[in-house]
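Memo to structure team: turn this sequence into structure tokens by end of day. - J.P.
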Amino acid sequence: MDKKDNPMSRLMELAAPYKGEYVLSVILAILGVAAGLLPFFAVSKIVILLMDGETSVSVYMEWCLIAGIGFLGKVCFANFSTLVSHTATFATLAEIRLKLADKLTRVPMGYMINTPSGELKNVLVDRVEGMETTLAHLVPELTANLCIPICILIYLLFLDWRMALAALITLPIGMLCYKGMANGYEEKFQGLIMRVRKMTSTVVEYIGGIEVIKAFNQSANSYQKYSDAVEDNAAYAVNWMKSVQLYKSMLVTIWPSVLVCVLPIGCVLYRNGSLSVPAFVTCIVLSLGIITPILNAMNFTDSISQMKSVVGELCAVLDEKELERPETPVPIHSSNIALENVSFSYESGKPLLKNINLFIPENSITAFVGPSGGGKSTITKLIAGFWDVTNGTVKLDGTDIRKIPLSQLMDNIAYISQDNYLFDETVLENIRMGKPSATDEEVYQAARDCGCYDFILNLENGFQTVVGGAGGHLSGGERQRIAIARAVLKNAPIVILDEATAYIDAENEALIQEAMAKVIAGKTVLMIAHRLSTITDADKIVVVKDGQIIGEGTHENLLTFCMLYQEMWKAHMDTKDVA
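Reply from structure team:
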């Protein structure tokens, strides 16, 4: 398997900056487990002393002290190992989250739009957080639990190779049981994860849609879907456990039964005079310390499989194709935009745009209209650099936007869609995101310019009102107006309005249109409107249908020459008459 395709190798790469800390945690864990063996040596020594008839209490106390030191050392080394590994793990997880966040700034915006926010949230928050326990304990404890049995076996081989082999007799039998238990483990574990995710998705859907479920009396159907997912998950897990129960029972019975082999073989060797009493007792005690660490290591089987799955999801994001852009800014003197023979489709999908040729002069207002799904938004998003074109070029001031640094391109564009996101911050800070260095007065002025100053003052705490997650404390129209104010504050030379007034009533839309007329002066404006009456004064109207431009011109020109526009205008006027 290629190193890049191996999840655990990728995990080691991600944790590489803290390799030293993890090595230290492993050393401390090994010392802790080794210290935990001292009581075994002490007990064997005390038994030997008793058999030899030792009467000095101080000798026994010395070995009791050694046992106590071993126990204390085990606790201390284990705690220090855990502290170091957790410190390294939290730093590693922080690095992973930063890498993911940085990656998302460099992937096409289309990837962000097409990927459900809940899915990305699960990766950045839940999946990364789920790595903490496994990563913090897996590296030191798994290593220690595998090293200690090896050390014991080496010592037993040095003491008496026959007793060492006797201590290992149950190991291959147990391995056969483990192999039977682990048969098809990866596939079964992935099946369990798939069902858990389906169940989680169904639960979220059920809770999130409870209002609609109740309103349309769909409680029975929705609950059935929910209960089916829960029962399917439970049944799968139970059936899996039943299929391995025999192997697991044999494993946990056979492996710890090391004395079944050690005692009779040791007795035979002792009676033959080839094994001394001290060696016999030591072998008995130490043989008990071989299997327990191995069983502890086996407990990480689920954790390793889960870790592979999580790392696979993280790497799927980290390996997502990026927009290839240079780092050095290029000179941009105008906001003329040109699309030359532009075609676009998603990967191996149906073409969404076909051979688009369009010139948008600076300081002009260009409106895009047409049937839903015709490609209007796709054109504006290609101009904004959300995706790379499949064929052709998009140019800004004569320069292919693929040769313009993404940050520079974004500095030149203010994009307002019909679904704008507000952060769980104050209104003031949400608007200030358009220009982080803006003063409070500049923020207030931007709000005045787009007609939302008064409504903000009427909020509970005015500009200091916290809008809630995704702006949940505000109405759709209020969120949109704040987003427009943010774009106004940015003062970019190009403004893209993707149905920006979709959530605003007619009265407020008229006010905003009046305000926007003041602030878009000297700007290159691209707008997609759902009400044709709002774009009649545009310098150019582009009619888009089925991924092609079928007409462009002024409102009057299109009413004369473009049949589709005539039909759309008639339908719009009929709707107004009915209203």
